[in-house]
Amino acid sequence: MWKPNTTVAAIVERDGKFLFVEERILGELKLNQPAGHVEKNESIVAACVRETLEETAYAFTPTALVGIYQWTVPGTDLTYLRYAFTGELGAHHAERTLDDGIEAAVWLTRDELIARSAQHRSPLILACVDDYLAGKRYPLELLRDFDARNEGALT
What we know:
Protein name: Phosphatase NudJ
Structural class: alpha+beta
Number of helices: 3
Subunit structure: Monomer.
Cofactor: Mg(2+)
Number of strands: 10
EC number: 3.6.1.-
Strand order of the largest sheet: 5-1-7-6
Keywords: Hydrolase, Magnesium
């Protein structure tokens, strides 16, 4: 049975630079936003908060949805459905160990990101930045999380 992988990403801008992670995938250094998979019994927004902390050691509070993206990896049946958020960057917890495979959190301008395009993990990275720069923001209320553990109550 086919189903897309549900993922989240944080689009964080500070002083004209964006927060990215450098991660080692199959021996190659790749760039991505702080991003990852939604886990069982986890809301989409909560997943973005968790993934940002795990990959960058920064606290993050989503304030708006930038966009929803679908991407199928060429030559595969692997499809990602990404929810990208912008929000408030909180405290940096330098003592935290970053997720396996994450080598560093880095700040890059859009031009620096383009200069490293060969390292992009997916085409979604630049698309998310460009949508953010275009001012795309949608209220978090678009996402309605019905928690089955609470008889379908909205959480």
